[in-house]
Structures are given as C-alpha cells and as structure tokens.
Amino acid sequence: MNTIQEILDALKTNVNTDFENENNANEEFKTIHDALLKLNSKSTSEEKYLIIILEIQDGENRHKHKVLHTTKAKNINFAAEKYAAGFYSERTGRYDDWWEFNHGCIAVRLYTVNELTTLEYNILSKYLNQ
C-alpha cells in the first residue's frame, strides 16, 4: 500500500512514463493515477503470466481481444495498461480510460487482467497464441 507522502512525492517528480513519446518524456504527472502507475512500475525478478482482455472500439463495432502476456512488473495492472497503450500504432491520445489510436478511429481500454499459473499459461498459449 502506498503512503500519501509517496503519492505526493511522485506527483512532484518528473519521470518518463513510458506512455508518452520522446518529446514529452519528462512531462510532470498531472493525476494521482499517473503517480500510482509510477510507484507500481518497478520490476521484480519473478516473471508473471497474465491474460489480458482488451475492449476495442472500431467505429460502431466493439469487441474484446484476449492476449497472453509475460511481465516482471510489480503491478499487473500497470503491465496490462502499458500493453493496452501500445496495442496499435499512431496513438493519438487518451480519453477517460480509453487509449485512442489513428486520430480517434480506434479506441482501446483495459477490460480485465488476471494472473495465471505457469500451467494455466502453457495450456492457454496452445490456443490463444496461434
């Protein structure tokens, strides 16, 4: 659990968020959400296996996309959000919890993320990563 002082310190710190392009790499955090992402971005030596479900809005069509992912990030929500932020090329912005791509034509958001055991990951990888 993060203390209030850690959150306030993170809000005052300029860091590379990994979500912004190189021109905005040192932009100061503007929300507590960004500060919490920074605090939870530290990696661990233990690899985690995830199933990430993204919600994709493409014009009037909306569907869910399932993907298996591995990470060493301490926080699986951070890892999944980072994956969603880079799902398509030409990211053009963020609106609420949606990442916008191709000038708003496609929007992606994290629907859910779950940590898997090694056995679950190996079984699902035979079907989802084909």
Account of the 3D structure:
The chain folds into 2 domains: 1-39, no CATH class; 42-128, no CATH class. The protein has 4 helices and 5 strands, in the order ααββαβββα. It has helices at residues 4-12, 32-39, 76-85, 118-128; strands at 43-58, 61-73, 91-95, 98-101, 106-116. A 5-stranded antiparallel sheet has the order 2-1-5-4-3. Helix 1 (4-12) packs across helix 2 (32-39). Mean pLDDT is 77; it is low at 14-29.
SSE layout:
Blueprint: H1 4-12, H2 32-39, E1 43-58, E2 61-73, H3 76-85, E3 91-95, E4 98-101, E5 106-116, H4 118-128
Antiparallel strand pairs: 1-2, 1-5, 3-4, 4-5
Helix pairs in contact: 1-2
Radius of gyration: 16 Å
Shape: flat
Distance separating the two termini: 38 Å
User: Which range best describes the helical content: under 10%, 10-25%, 25-40%, 40-55%, 55-70% or over 70%?
Assistant: 25-40%
Instruction: Report mean pLDDT, rounded to a whole number.
Output: 77
Helix count from the secondary structure assignment: 4
SSE order in H/E notation? HHEEHEEEH
What is the spatial order of strands in the main beta sheet?
Answer: 2-1-5-4-3
The number of distinct β-strands equals 5
Q: Could you list the spans in which at least 5 consecutive residues all have pLDDT below 50?
A: 14-29
The major β-sheet equals: 5 strands, antiparallel
Proportion of residues in extended strands: 35-45%
Number of self-contained structural domains: 2
Structural class: alpha+beta
